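pasting for ref
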Amino acid sequence: EFSGAMVDWPRVEPVPGIPRVLGELRKNYTLVVASNAIDSNADQIRAALNLVNAGNFFKGIYSFHETQVKKPDRAFFTFLETTLNCSNTQMVMVGDDMRADCLGAHNAGWGSVWYNPHNLACPGLIPLHNAEICHMDQLPGILNQAFYPSYEECLSWLLQAQAPHNLLAHIHTVAAIGYQLALWLRQAGYVVDPILVHRGGLIHDIAKVEAKKVGEDQITHSELGERHMNSLNQPVLAQITRRHQLDNILDEKNNPQTMEEILVFFADKLANGSHLVTPDERITILSHRYPNSSAEIEKTRQPVLELQADLCKKMNISEESLLPRIKKALSNKVA
């Protein structure tokens, strides 16, 4: 809204919730400001922060005047590591600029949290950042628990499980759909973790190859996947994997429960391979693919369609427009 040094602006306002959050975080973390600002040096930025009683929370303030380089340049992050005497694994960037803050930090080996108050979708619907918040009061809870596995870690697990290219195409489609659905739900006011949905989508079929070798009449790929993720000490992802299979919607014990489990389950019903289909079409395809199980598959049709109706109602999206909107989101470079 204004240009020039922030300390000279006619109005400076804090992000909602930030004073309380900074006070809480300061108990366990060293806080610094790392900015690309050119109009203000460190002293001017601190003076501007003092206008909203936030300056004293930060041990250091670094702008272009101090770093002489801008995010996302790797040298910016190296400067901070050296100045603060920290390794990249000790650093977390919290920022609202996907390219400069999150991708820059990711490429430097830092953790990264995207402050995304408008629930925008990241480029390619592939969140490389570790966490995503739409309100600052979510930040302490995010930082006080371990991050979910990174995109690269999930991909490495899939390759170790010998996932072929066509399966990788499918899981990337499911993960992207689930991530976008999570953002639409958050826009409508529902509590859901889009990063967890994305990572759950990535690993939901991790045991597909192994199950074919063993025989799904012996054990399903969702059960094998649950075991595999538990062996990796990922109990939350293990449950998403266990509950994604179509017939689980008929199983009172193993049907999807959390919003993240529900979204991965549903996203999987919108992807035949890497092609988008309606849930109705997906169930018909599966019924033809597995004729010996077609009667059981048919029993899932109505519950899946009811789930679609419920999710669309929550997202304020008509059922008719859901697939076109997803197609548009998948084709846009930046949604």
